[in-house]
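re: ur question from yesterday

yeah so i grabbed the chain u mentioned. its 503 aa long if i counted rite. heres the sequnce exactly as i have it in my notes:
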Amino acid sequence: MASGIRKSRWTLIALLTIVAGWPMPAWTDETDYLAVFIEGKKVGYAVHSRTVAGDKVTTTEEVSITISRLGVPVTITMSETSIETKQGNPIGFEVIQQLGAMAMKLAGSVDKQGKVTLTSMAMGAEQKSSFEWPAGAVMAEGLRLLSLKQGLKEGTQYTVTIFSPGIMQALDAKFSVGPEQDVDLLGRVVRLREVTTSMTMPGAGEVVTKTYVDNDLRALKSTVPIAGMTVEMVACAKEFALGANDVLELIEKMFVKSPQPLEDVPSAASITYVLSPGKDTKLVIPATDSQKVEQLDDGKMIVTVKPVVAPPGARFPYRGKDEKLLTATKPTPFLQSDQKEVVELARRAIGDTKDAAEAVRRIEAFVARYVETKSLSVGYASAAEVAVSKQGDCSEFAVLTAAMCRAIGIPTQMVVGVAYIKDFGGIEGFGGHAWAQAYVGGDSSGGQQGKWVGLDAAFKSAGLGFDAGHIALGVGDGEPGDFFNIAAMLGKFKIEKVVIKRQ
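ran it thru and got these structure tokens back, copy pasting raw so excuse formatting
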């Protein structure tokens, strides 16, 4: 449990690097410092710098926040650097992610044909991959030039596709220039122009940011609602930005209340939930083999969770031709299924079984025992890191489970959402959580129709497992960008009704 809390915080910091990247003035060697506030408490800082050398423009946004979970403070820092030509064309980028004790570095170079070569490094292991640059996407300097061209006349609107190296995705952003107004900058009142940015997040709808800029396009304050909280970034002196932080306990913000306490959830054949969205919120919830979703005319949503059973007799590795399933067997920067340590663990876990259903059950049980230290101090570790450290909470259980399944050729995805828990630090309800789902059967091996089967090694370690108390909010490959859903949606809906069906 509480992985969704960490994930939400990670996607929050990725979002803040985008917010911090508002265009800077045209002169060079400029650095701005901002203090980051959540619910009125200072929790970190942002530093934005821009330098020009020859034809290259280098822009760096660094954001760091410290949040407490049940009294355990964790600091997460991300530094995102974009390298572009003076015309705003992409040359390369670098991302350094420091998540608690874990660190990861991503570096990309863009050639003239638009091919991106990506190198990722974690725990000394290097991985290379490539992809095509998103058509029309810009980074910091390209955005600065477009914003300068559009100007700050009230009523001006324009749309830009922004590539965020931090989440490795292109986001559509709509800018709307509003009126001038007096803005309080930590006691100093300044006349600034309001600019509203609506960014379309993958699978999570819009996140709306209010940014207040001066006539030189310098952002002096930004506000963004996320996970039911108000997050602010305010320009200030370097000493204050980098100074001491307040203590903000985040646990309660990452829970959705249950309309009533639920009894014996593991024995439920299915559970039906009526979800009610908040004002101006459209729920975006995925359907899976274990989760059916019905959208009602009034905006409410009926979600029925009925865990499926893995069909017996299916073999592995997957030998079908479905591209989605083939992709779900490949290594990623967070699911390093080709790393020696992960492959060896997978072989130890499955033993001599040839049955895919039995293999995923054995991997789930193995990971439940293998992660020895249930630690809230870990930021967000990759599978290779967990294989060595043997510590973490539910997202560490999930990434290792997914990577081990992929290591033996079984398509597997990460899932993030909320799961019911009777008591977590004195809190009852649906808390942010992560688990895995593996695809069993359905290929040329002659097995039955394939099914995505839920695997929850974290719950398994507590004598439970995947059950109908899990509501999926996002599915992906373990990349931070796959999980904007939970950060954007928590605080925006409530569970209005729960109906439990027994066997």
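noticed a couple things. The first strand starts at residue 30 and ends at 38. also Residues 1-10, 24-28 have pLDDT under 50 and may be disordered.
anyway ttyl
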